[in-house]
Amino acid sequence: MNNVLVDAIATSQQQSSEREVRFFRLQDPAQLEALTQLITQQPGIRVFDEIQPQLAELIRLQHPAERLSETAIAEKVAAHLGNTPPAAYGVWVYYPWSGRVVHILDEAEFVLLRTSRNQHKITEAERKVLQTKKIGVIGLSVGQSVALALAIERLCGELRIADFDKLDLSNMNRIRTGVHHVGILKTVLVAREIAEIDPFLQVRCYDNGISEDNIDAFLTEGGRLDILVEECDGLDIKVLARQRARAMHIPVVMDTSDRGMVDVERFDLQHDLPILHGRIPEDITAARIRNMQGPERMQLVDRIVNFNAMSTKMQASLAEIGKTITTWPQLASAVMLGGAAIAHVCREVGLNREIASGRYYVDLEQIFNHDK
């Protein structure tokens, strides 16, 4: 292996954890100088400046009842800019992991324009309520689709994501990403993707996953979560997260990516609600679950998800674990459906609408194949 390739691999490994963007507002001379130096010192950086189309679209948004000509739009854009040169308007965002600098509208106008096609399914008043919400997602397989749906619809102002795992090639049957991301922490990948969609959305990463040592910090640090989305594989953390969320009156939602099963536990409304709908003993502890083996552990899984209520193919697959497969199967379509379903529930809960505790099914096979 030659030195050039070795150096390239080393550089790639150093950059694999980058997830923070940098903002440059060029009306500040110091920030203009900083961006100029960055581009000069790193000639491989690619610059994307499409501020004019964004301004034109913003003008159309501000005059929805008018059929503006291109000339009229150009005049209104000029008036909107005033004495500010187009290059100095808005903000330049540097994405270090991709070597891109992108010129976009600044936060208020960016958010207004990016979410404008949500109107009036999500009204402006509702968007302002939702941007005050804090949502946490534990587990980033199904949780990746959830986090992205929350971010794209902008159903919160802060998103906390937790997972200790790195991307494996086998994860890519359900996680939308590129092969060049194999081996990178899932938290990093999700944070990067959200930043490329909306760099103003606050994302806080817990790269070591969730444990008894940090669960309270995840739920409360920087302000108590409004909603917890639990999508982790660990049974002990499933139970621990619910016990702590209930103590703090935080609602919990979960999708299982089989038959579109969604659990909703409104601990915010019912402070003594049994966890997992009373399917497991109230006195069970995370430590006891970690010590469970074989049949006892599978019995707990059955209590939680109810094997008999699973799809026929999932039931057959469970019997093959450790024989022809290593773990339970998950399909991209089911994971994406779960992301959409959880986003819907989070939106409704965040807006104080009536979503009752319970177990729900969005079963596509039942909907489309019921008469076959």
Describe the structure.
It is a single chain. This protein has 372 residues and is of the alpha/beta class. 42% of the residues lie in helices and 13% in strands. The chain is built from 15 helices and 11 strands. It has helices at 3-15, 29-41, 51-62, 70-81, 107-114, 124-130, 142-153, 186-197, 215-220, 235-247, 286-290, 294-305, 312-318, 332-350, 364-369; strands at 22-24, 46-49, 91-95, 100-104, 134-138, 158-162, 202-206, 227-230, 252-255, 261-265, 358-361. Strands 7-6-5-8-9-10-11 form a 7-stranded mixed β-sheet, with helices on both faces. A 4-stranded mixed β-sheet has the order 1-3-4-2. α10 links the parallel β8 (227-230) and β9 (252-255). The longest helix is centred in the last third of the chain and has 19 residues, at 332-350. The model has no long low-confidence stretch (mean pLDDT 94).
Question: Layout of helices and strands, plus pairs?
Answer:
Blueprint: H1 3-15, E1 22-24, H2 29-41, E2 46-49, H3 51-62, H4 70-81, E3 91-95, E4 100-104, H5 107-114, H6 124-130, E5 134-138, H7 142-153, E6 158-162, H8 186-197, E7 202-206, H9 215-220, E8 227-230, H10 235-247, E9 252-255, E10 261-265, H11 286-290, H12 294-305, H13 312-318, H14 332-350, E11 358-361, H15 364-369
Parallel strand pairs: 2-4, 5-6, 5-8, 6-7, 8-9
Antiparallel strand pairs: 1-3, 3-4, 9-10, 10-11
Helix pairs in contact: 3-4, 7-8, 7-14
GO molecular function, one term: nucleotidyltransferase activity
InterPro entries: ThiF/MoeB/HesA (IPR045886), ThiF_NAD_FAD-bd (IPR000594), Ubiquitin-activating_enz (IPR035985)
Keywords: Nucleotidyltransferase, Transferase
